Amino acid sequence: MIGKLISHYRVVNELGRGGMGVVYKAEDTKLDRTVALKFLPPQALITEDDRARFYREARAAAALHHPNIATVFEIDEVPGDGGATTPLIAMEYVDGETLSEQIARGPLPLKDAISIASQVARGLAAAHEKNIIHRDVKAGNVMIANDGTVKILDFGLAKTSASTRLTQMGSTLGTAAYMSPEQARGEEVDTRSDIWSLGVILYEMIAGRLPFPGDYEQAVVYGILNSNPEPLSGLRTGVPLELERIVDKCLDKDPGKRYRHASEIEVDLGRIDLAAISQSRTAAIVVSDSGHRSRNIKYVWAFGGLAAGVVATVFAAWLLGSAQNGTIPSNERPVHRLSLTLPAEFPLEPVGTAILGVGASALDLRSDSRRLVYVASVDGLPMLAVRAMDTGQIRTLQGTERAYFPVISPSGDWIAFIADGKMKKVSAGGGAPLELSDTADPNGVAWIDDNRIVVSSRQGSKLKVIDANDGSTLSEVDGSNWSDLSVLPDGKAILLSDRRNVWMLSLDSFEGKQIIERGTSPRYVRSGHVVFARPGRLFAVPFDIKTREVTGSPVPVIDDVRTESVNRSAQFTVSDDGTLIYVPGGAAERGRLTWVERDGGKTPLDFEPELFGTFRLSPEGDRLAIVELGDPGVIWIYDLVRKSRTRFGEGSRSPLWTPDGRSIVYTTRTEGKDTYSMIMRPATGGAATTLLETEAFADPFSWSPDGGMIAYYQGLDLWVLPFKDGVAGGPRPWLLAPERLWSPVFSRDGQYIAYTLIGERNSEVYVGPVDASDVRWQISVDGGEEPQWSPTGRELFYSRGRVWYSVPVTTSPEFRAGTPRVLFEGNYLNVPGLGYAVSPAGSKFLVVESAESDEPVRELKVVENWFAELRRVAPVGH
């Protein structure tokens, strides 16, 4: 077999063999990568039921894309001996050793065992969320890569939890020592069977032996069904009781008493403090991990320097003493400004926390100013941190990894947040987060009262009120790109933004009205004002809370406030007693046009930074049609050769060059009507031709190679507009789906359309045939959007936040896609609409580099008794 070419794989050497087949290391000659080839025994697919099950389960495994799961690239059957076919699975090759090989050398250090078990739990949680059970979790199926990353193998033999039972050639599948009691009895199993197996692995790593040993299979099974394992603390000194409790809970013979979700195991493991060393209040208590600080931090006492600590303590004592006991009336107390320094190990993370790099609110202050919650960067991983304003104590909240949109409840007892496509809440004092509901692609979160939360999802196209106790949906309505939600004091209406203007919406009828032009991040504050943001600045306008009417004109009140891209969320929070805390900076969405090479090298263009929207290169690559986001937006044509720019059109967006580069297609509001018109106008100016008039905005996105169709999206659906002899025909839907769809792009041969689908957990890039919209292939892994084809048609590019990817593809004789790889990443903006362009040669990419740093923030600005200042600069009527 060594050296033989199987399909397009050249076998290099054998990696291992067992009852379920032989595994080889091989080279993928098509995509030039190393893979692991697993050949199952030919008798595994004797019947059609066997074959159907094999492909069904392997396809389910191929849908799993997670850092702790070895990716399945391909499933196939190849000719074997005697005319029979041999099932073949091509998987990710992991350079390292199996966990069983490590355990064979003896028990593992506790910190290593916890780290490995946490990563296995993370991978299982991802699979279980897709209703996929591994059924054969064991030390031999866990690989430890040379960089320490843990990969779970053999998901190619997994079975969906909708199925009833799995047999293979008449016997129960799974190595006996790792089987759960219900699996050993041949009963139906669910995700808790995998959790049992993880408990066996964790026990084995700590003790250096299996919990149910035996010289033969029947003895092992008897122990699993009837015996309890010897306590770990009796086998090894220094085992924390909490760690032993976790193992015992995994190995409970009653599935109902085990962990319900693998993610809960990771959370509990993260609470184990191996160091347990009491240190001074200026130091951090951390878990040591091979010389590096672990992400599993328990408690942190930090002030960011002695001077900052003194300032914070004096400020808090004065604030919580004289301010709250009423000795100084709030309208007479002077305004105090100071800086709050965060410790270097826990800075605030303003970007990279929300899905696809869309900037989101990263901090919230309790109504009485006693507690600040913010998104901290802990070893590069976003996590919620709580700072006590009186002492400066900082505590990270375990289980809040990848959190964003933190919001403190009215009582101050809970913190709601978004993570991994879920709405969650966590006690402000710590503990395991509680999952409330799925929240796809959220744009804002606010507490209505202690029992209700309102959230905008799918980039704001839906508003939903949920029960804050059980996560049930109380009411919901389709929206219009709503973001940055805040609730008025009576809990009957909310303020929000449509990314351009400020609106007020009734929570009873969901009827709304615009109250402020040009503004985002609105907040009603107790001084009687609505505070809102424009790029880099805060404004205030008097607001009558009884009539719910604006009673004055907006005035600027704070300069140098950081505002993020896309939603233009401003990084500030205001307490009910008048304390303002904000992140200093400017408009992070303001950026410079920059060429980026495939290797990451960059060359800025000679144009001033602007607030850019969608932009498109002309077919020759010498001109750029680009939207500058102002009031209103304006399309400009940038001449990249002459380094000049010309104003093209006002009040429009999504410019698309015609294939000959002579005209530009874009959509704007129809003059004198409450409709929108897609028009085509010569790039040099002149009369426009109306192509399409619609009630909802229709964004033109791509021409077919022959110029015979425009692919566009309208609402949540994808459409095509046919052309013949330069005249538009009747539009027809290409893909109508319950999900939100956008960014349709024709392939270079015109046979396929790539597009973005905003699903329940993430945005992903898909490809479908032009003539069969019910067929699709997923291209991106763990999130992606804005696909574009390379000039040769042999690559698909897409972005995910601030990272750009390339995927090798073939479109003939059938469509196939390879594994995504990172091209480059950097402080480049996810601007509204299409955020990058590919050069005609495909060798470089035009992006917008942010004018603001993407580094974590250590300094926050504090303004105490801010309401007195607001009343001076924006007097409230009587």
Helix tally equals 12
* Strands, total number: 67
Quote the distance from N terminus to C terminus: 89 Å
Q: Any idea what the shape is?
A: globular
Largest sheet: 8 strands, antiparallel
Q: Approximately what portion of the residues adopt beta-strand conformation?
A: 35-45%
Short description:
With 878 residues, this protein is mainly beta.
List the main descriptive attributes of the protein structure presented here.
about 900 residues, mainly beta, six-stranded antiparallel β-sheet, about 40% strand, globular
Structure commentary:
- With 878 residues, this protein is mainly β.
- The strands form 16 sheets. Strands 41, 42, 43, 44, 45, 46, 65 and 66 form an eight-stranded antiparallel sheet that branches. A six-stranded antiparallel sheet has the order 1-2-3-4-6-5.
- β57 and β58 form a beta hairpin.
Q: How do the helices and strands line up, and which of them pair or pack?
A:
Layout (H helix, E strand, L loop, with lengths): L4 E2 L2 E10 L2 E8 L4 E7 L8 H15 L9 E8 L5 E8 L3 E3 H5 L6 H20 L2 E2 L8 E4 L4 E3 L6 E2 L6 E2 L2 E2 L8 H4 L6 H17 L9 H10 L5 H4 L5 H10 L11 H9 L17 E2 L2 E2 L6 E2 L4 H15 L1 H4 L10 E6 L21 E3 L5 E8 L2 E8 L4 E4 L7 E5 L5 E6 L2 E6 L6 E5 L5 E6 L2 E6 L4 E6 L5 E6 L4 E5 L5 E5 L4 E5 L5 E5 L3 E6 L3 E6 L2 E8 L4 E2 L4 E5 L12 E3 L5 E3 L7 E8 L4 E3 L5 E8 L5 E6 L5 E6 L4 E7 L1 E6 L5 E7 L6 E7 L6 E6 L3 E6 L5 E6 L2 E8 L2 E2 L3 E4 L4 E7 L5 E7 L4 E7 L7 E2 L6 E5 L5 E6 L2 E8 L5 E2 L3 E5 L11 E2 L5 E7 L8 E6 L1 H8 L5
Antiparallel strand pairs: 1-2, 2-3, 3-4, 4-6, 5-6, 7-9, 8-11, 9-10, 12-13, 14-15, 16-21, 17-67, 18-19, 19-20, 20-21, 22-23, 23-24, 24-25, 26-27, 27-28, 28-29, 30-31, 31-32, 32-33, 34-35, 35-36, 36-37, 36-38, 39-40, 40-67, 41-42, 41-43, 41-66, 43-44, 44-45, 45-46, 47-48, 48-49, 49-50, 51-52, ...
